[in-house]
User: What shape does this take?
Amino acid sequence: MRRLTAAGIAPVAVSLVLVGCSAGPEPGPGPEQAAAPVTTTGGALRAAFAGGSTETLNYLKGPTALDYVRARLVHAPLCELDPSAPEGVAYGVVEQIDVSEDLAQYTLHIRDGVTFTDGTALSAQDVLYSLRAPVLLEGLPFTRLVARSFDLDAATVTDPSTVVLPTLAPVADGRELICQSMLAIKDGTTEFTPQTPSSGPFTIAAFEPGQSTLLERNDDFYGPAPTLDEIALVSIADGTARVNALRQGQVDYVSGLSPAQAQTLEGESEVTVVTSDLPYASYQFFSMNLDVEPFADPRVREAFKLAVNREQIIENVYFGHAFEGNDVPALGFRSYDTTLEQRAYDPDRARELLADAGQEGMSVELTAGPELPGMVETATLLVEDLKAVGVDATLRELAPGQLFADYPAYLALPFKVGYSPPALFEPNYTPGTFPEVDVLVQTARSAPTAQERLEASHAAQRLLWEQGNQIAPVFVPAISAASTAVGGVRELQFPDLSQATVTR
Amino acid sequence: MRVDVWITARVVTAAATLAVLTVIVFWATEVLPGDAVGVLSGPTATDAEREAVRLALGLDRPALERYLEWIGGALRGDLGTSLVSGREVAPLVGARLSTSLAVLVPAVLLIVTLAGTLGTAAGLRHGGRLDRWLSGTTLGLIGTPDFLIATALLVLLTAWWPVLPAVALIPPGQSLWSHPELVVLPAVALALGGFGSTMRLLRASVAQTVTTPFAEFARLNGVRGHRYVWGVVVSNALAPAVMALAVMTAGLLGGAIVVETLFNVPGMGSELTQAVAGRDVPLVQGLSLVLGTMTLLLLLVGDVAAKLLHRHAPATSGGHR
Amino acid sequence: MTARRWVLAVPVLLVLTVALAGPWVPAGSVTAPIGASFAPPTAEHPLGTDVLGRDVFARALAGGRVLVAQAVAATLLGSLVGLTVGVWAGVTHHRAVGRSLMRVVDGLAALPALLLLMLLATGMPGNDVAVAAGIAIVSAPFSVRVLHESAARLAATDYARHAEARGEGLLTRTRSDILPGLVPVALAEAGIRFVAATQLAATAGFLGLGAGAPVANWGRMVRENSTGAAMNPLPVIVPAALLVVLAVSVTVLIDRTSVSTRLAPERIERAA
Assistant: This one.
């Protein structure tokens, strides 16, 4: 299980519960670890996140990262993404997912012995409800990933430990969709309070939105027992204030640092800076609107991609804490085409292409907002790069939160920044721009053999690389920092603190 | 006009002003580009999902209908629910106001004490050594932006000489009022920002009173010491100073955003910033209503105090010459 | 002017010159990166580089004009409104009209300053004029109140009442009875407003409300570069110091001028 093999948790004692239950084909923990006695070292971790007063225990409606981090500790995940595992997922409450030959039906097998904090056992009915909850409880769009590809109304519980889930159309990536962010909640849950029965490694002892949450270890948790007695999740909106709190020892762990803050902290002896590994890096892109005249010409699009000095962006904006992008999404995921040639920085060729297209000296306004660390800064450098190849480029910076607030207006902008959180390419691709790519992505999701699917995906990525309307100079990882006493934090899309340790 | 009639008239106009204020704020938030649907849906939602969010938030209904519903609720003390978190606005705003006041009250007390004594002392002997020294100091304070004062305090008292916590971390279930150690830094930062201008106004007012014929007359008639300072100078200089203090306090209440951000105080200012960014119209409305009420209340108190002081101040009543 | 006041005027003129003429100095590109981020000073780039590897010297030269222009415009506008409305409402014998005018001003003051600035900045992103107008709207009610209070006090003095009883016109009374006493307060008030306006403009930049990237602005520079202060503090210290020197020296100058006026009680006596 990735949860156990993740770096940094070697000294963590492993619960025996999990060992016999590793039904998945991925390698389980070694025999020495399995023989180790269950010990808990205890301790308390104080972790700070951006949070804010919009904090809510209803993670389906919570727009901030902190809401999901907390929910992930309170409610056990059905399963999780694990790009290194053969099936691409690590199992949890669901111990196995079988896919039918025709890719039209998924069978979920529920683990035995999982209980809620009210003492009841978790059943297939609870899992089915958990899958339906984002729609039933009017969750935010990003929680509804499963509903986009599966027919949840037609899903059935065939026996107390099996859920059968038909797809809307054949898909091969259903496991990843189910495992992206689904948590197990009890059938019939409609509101989330500290008393709501839960199944995760921690329970909520106190909750004050916009201030802090106090979590206590759930000793009845089915999985690997946490070593911590308590976790305090603190809400500190300002990045500088978070860093100050860490420096002064008011908290042990801070999430969501800016690259420059990370660079400053890196020199300090009491602090470790951690950057999330691939594939957990956000896809930051600059989108050229094909309905706007100059961008209809593929030569202009290529010129723009060639004009960008990616290395300078990585060094000057991210101080090396970023991954070079190649203008296609999902870097680090399994279907990512690593054979594509890395786009060069070639301002001369860019100038030639613009001249060929008759667009020397064209004017363009790039719209950007601070939605991701370094986003406005990257846009600033991109505008400079474009000016250097003779484009009359300007930047329009929006206030925080404004970029996506008016979505129709956003879509109509000629040239704008955007991002998507780390996710698979195929199910998250928005069709409608390139018909040829649409067909290939459809094949990549539904062709009968893995080989055919991978080839179609690569062909789609190559087309996007050649003609696409997105410039992706960098993938942006999450940066966090912790005191040297802290270990065992997994930097995924959101940090996972369930196996964290504190040595004092 | 009798004072009680005058005060009643002021309260009525204040209520009318508040009503107008809610319309302005609602309209202004409404015409801003974008809405909570876009904010909550993010960049990856489909159109159908966006529509579902719009319906769930009730934003498909006309703005006028939503305003009337809101103002109807507000009259009964119900400020609606936040669009972003789904929580009730009234208790949320109450908690934020309480936190803001926990920092503001000590800060204002500090300002009153410092500005009152130093301003009077400097004004009585304007041009003297104390006055010159204080002038320099206050001008330096006034000239330094709040964020620099706060940052300097942070560096000084948390990094170099770590005696106070850098960030206000309030344990769940408790309020800032029970944690004076967390209040000290933000309150001092706030006080240093507001102290300069208040002291200078009081000093100017005192200095001017000293030069009035009435004060000269009093001096020539042998009024000295405490009787001179309190009975002659301060009582005459107090009216504009009280007014200035009221205005400054009102400004600090909603304008402490920088201090609240840097010290992580979950008060009105930081909440308002987030609410505007999230297009959370009911929350923006609720916060503006409370801020507006507090401001008008403070101005009213300032006016009443100034009027009462006027009645007792002999200098301007004209009967002493 | 005394020699002493000339000494005080030097830093104001210096900073104002840097602010107003700075953008004309050919110090290289303000927006293009010239090296690594937060690089220390070199002979070629005496202040090093900023958060994106741009020349701090060039940006510091370019970043003051907008700020000073915003502050001056907002102060002039605010003081003008304050003086006109405040004095008229304090002196006029249309007491009812004056009172209702003050109520309107109260209403404006009740509008939270921060909210107003944020709404303007969100509605018109990157618009410097909007920020200046916002600052003026925010500060005008306070000017009006302070000046109205002083004017009303002066209008209630015996000599002013005698003048009114003699049937002198509003303008005459204002010129001879009110203004001489009001000038020091008005000047002190304008000084405070100017400093407050500089601060608000800088704070707007600090909070990201002012003009957007890649524009250089002293307030914005402080915010942009504060995270890298441990690597190269100059991009924070230099604009902050310029802001402070400007604000402090302007206030000192105005303060000295107003003290000398106030120390001439014979003018008030003569008016009486």
Summary: Residues 450-467 of chain A form the longest helix (18 residues). The CA atoms of residues 117 and 197 of chain A lie 5 Å apart. Chain A touches chain B through 52 residues (CB under 8 Å).
